[in-house]
């Protein structure tokens, strides 16, 4: 019997009663030993009683999240204010649950939204469907969509879970933005 | 005041007010016992317990009470409706009736009681036996196999441990010579220079240990909570109960817990006498100590298997209690001549 780590399991499976070691001679059931065991248990729980509580008081106090935590999505902008998204729909194609809707439109010289040929006229994410896998972030060629650190997304109606472009374009927390910029440079041409 | 009390109407007014005051006190104490249990059990498991509603979570029970009171009063189909409703009522009534004979020391030579019966302890046993009907009828009328099994287990358990519980107190009655709780607390010894009340546990330590174990079993508390047994019987007799009817069972369990704690304090630890501590504080402190003991046991010990429970009750506690009575009798005769 070995498990996946290659460690030997010393207790193989057996039928009830089979291979149970016989009680050593001379070891009789003793009331004193039982009472001592009982007292030992009570002592353990009492000592736990006086130790500090380990609970994180959640709404006031939060556990730290990993740098790569995948929470709600953000659409990023370049430093000059142009949207990064070029409306290529690769995120929608990569999405396993199909929760992203992108409708692209052509940029013109009068109305330039993104540096590329096209931009996302509509960009919607259905957060009720999203499984937070982060494939959209991986698929994006211009680092436009990223998953931020927020995870408290509850709301009062289903409609409010369709995140529109305005909501997604809210600025990222500055520390995340700095980290993303340090990681990979895809800047405005 | 005496004239007013001796008047037939005045007497009933005084008694009714006294009962209302006691009912309020016991209900409030029950609510805070539940809070105390949840906090203490939490601390044993290194979590804080309820701490959201009010300061230190002290209003948690008010919130729980409102929630349970506003739940639908649901009666499942094919139940015996009359018994189904009566059973929790019996539990609550029996639990509160015990408090009629329990005296509370308010101050030096001032005690509070509803009925100062000379058979006080006997009456408490009579009422606590009614609890069997509450659980058995609840289990039977629910028309659910888990409820029925819980009810049957409970009937066997309560009957078995009632014997040990009753017998464990007989030495106390033999020493004191009275069943009146006030007399037992006021029992005075003349030991050399010391004349005064003593904790009777010094004279009947074995009786106290048997009482402690049997009382836990009588109130269906862990590790003797076989009638409920969430894991095996999905709540036993409580399975089909919800809303206010569930509250009644819950309330009864905690009132019983306070009752046996108060009894332990009165019968074995000198009631309201404790060194220089004022009587009412002494009494409350002792009750809280025993309540903590209950919670501590619940946080420590796993539930007994059914055969272990029966073996402990019939083969250990009952013979021990009988031997205790016989030996106490012999010693009493030898000492008193």
Spatial order of the strands in the main sheet of chain A? 2-3-5
Radius of gyration of chain A equals 29 Å
> Using only CA atoms, what is the Rg of chain B?
21 Å
Distance between the termini of chain A: 61 Å
| Main beta-sheet annotation of chain A | 3 strands, antiparallel
User: Uncertain spans of chain A, ≥5 residues at pLDDT below 50?
Assistant: none
Termini separation of chain B comes to: 46 Å
Q: Would you identify the CATH architecture of the domain at 73-183 in chain A? A: 2-Layer Sandwich
Order of helices and strands of chain B: HHHHEEHHHEEHHHHH
Instruction: Figure out the total of helices of chain A.
Output: 5
Task: Describe the model.
The complex is a heterodimer of chains A (189) and B (337). Chain A starts with 30 loop residues before the first helix and ends in a 6-residue tail after the last helix. In chain A, 23% of the residues lie in helices and 13% in strands. In chain A, the strands form two sheets. Chain A has a three-stranded antiparallel β-sheet with strand order 2-3-5. Chain A has five helices and five strands; from the N terminus they run H-E-H-E-E-H-E-E-H-H. Chain B has 337 residues and is mostly helical. Chain B has two domains: 1-70; 74-336, no CATH class. Chain B is 67% helix and 4% strand. The N and C termini of chain B lie far apart (46 Å). The interface between A and B is medium-sized, with 14 and 13 residues.
Structure keywords:
heterodimer; A: alpha+beta; Alpha-Beta Plaits; three-stranded antiparallel beta sheet; two-stranded antiparallel ribbon; 5 helices; 5 strands; about 25% helix; about 15% strand; B: about 325 residues; mainly alpha; two-stranded antiparallel sheet; 12 helices; about 65% helix; globular
């Amino acid at each position: 019997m070995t498990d996946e780590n290659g460690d030997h399991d010393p207790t193989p499976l057996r039928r009830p009663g089979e291979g149970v070691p016989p009680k050593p001679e001379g070891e009789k059931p003793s009331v004193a030993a039982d009472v001592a065991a009982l007292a030992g248990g009570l002592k353990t729980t009492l000592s736990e009683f006086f130790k500090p509580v380990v609970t994180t008081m959640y709404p006031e106090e939060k556990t730290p999240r990993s740098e790569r935590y995948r929470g709600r999505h953000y659409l990023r902008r370049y430093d000059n204010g142009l949207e990064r998204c070029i409306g290529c729909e690769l995120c929608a194609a990569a999405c396993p649950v199909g929760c992203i809707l992108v409708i692209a439109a052509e940029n013109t010289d009068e109305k330039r939204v993104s540096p590329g040929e096209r931009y996302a006229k509509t960009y919607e994410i259905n957060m009720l469907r999203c499984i937070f896998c982060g494939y959209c972030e991986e698929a994006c060629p211009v680092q436009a969509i990223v998953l931020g650190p927020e995870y408290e997304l509850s709301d009062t109606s289903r409609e409010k879970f369709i995140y529109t472009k305005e909501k997604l374009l809210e600025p990222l927390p500055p520390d995340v933005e700095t980290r993303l910029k340090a990681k990979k440079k895809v800047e405005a041409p | 005041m005496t004239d007013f009390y001796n008047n037939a109407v005045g007497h009933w007014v005084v008694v009714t007010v006294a009962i209302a005051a006691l009912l309020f006190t016991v209900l409030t104490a029950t609510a805070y016992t539940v809070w105390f249990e949840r906090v203490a059990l939490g601390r044993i498991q290194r979590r804080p317990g309820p701490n959201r509603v009010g300061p230190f979570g002290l209003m948690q029970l008010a919130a729980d009470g409102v929630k349970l009171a506003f739940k639908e009063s649901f009666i499942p189909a094919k139940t015996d409706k009359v018994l189904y409703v009566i059973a929790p009522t019996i539990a609550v009534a029996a639990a509160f009736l015990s408090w009629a004979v329990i005296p509370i020391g308010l101050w030096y030579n001032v005690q509070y009681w509803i009925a100062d019966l000379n058979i006080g302890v006997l009456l408490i046993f009579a009422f606590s036996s009614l609890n069997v009907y509450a659980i058995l009828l609840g289990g039977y009328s629910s028309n659910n196999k888990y409820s029925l099994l819980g009810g049957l287990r409970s009937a066997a358990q309560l009957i078995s441990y009632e014997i040990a519980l009753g017998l464990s107190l007989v030495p106390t009655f033999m020493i004191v010579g009275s069943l009146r709780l006030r007399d037992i607390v006021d029992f005075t010894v003349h030991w050399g220079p010391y004349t005064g009340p003593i904790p009777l546990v010094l004279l009947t330590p074995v009786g106290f240990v048997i009482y402690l174990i049997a009382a836990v079993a009588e109130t269906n508390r862990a590790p003797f909570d076989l009638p409920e047994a969430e894991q095996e019987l999905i709540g036993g007799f409580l399975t089909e109960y919800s809303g206010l009817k569930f509250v009644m069972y819950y309330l009864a369990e905690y009132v019983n817990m306070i009752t046996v704690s108060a009894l332990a304090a009165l019968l074995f630890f000198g009631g309201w006498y404790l060194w220089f501590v004022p009587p009412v504080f002494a009494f409350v402190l002792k009750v809280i100590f025993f309540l903590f003991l209950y919670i501590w046991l619940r946080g420590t010990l796993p539930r007994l298997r059914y055969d272990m429970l029966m073996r402990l009750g019939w083969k250990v506690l009952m013979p021990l209690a009988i031997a205790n009575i016989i030996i106490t009798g012999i010693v009493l005769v030898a000492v008193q001549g």
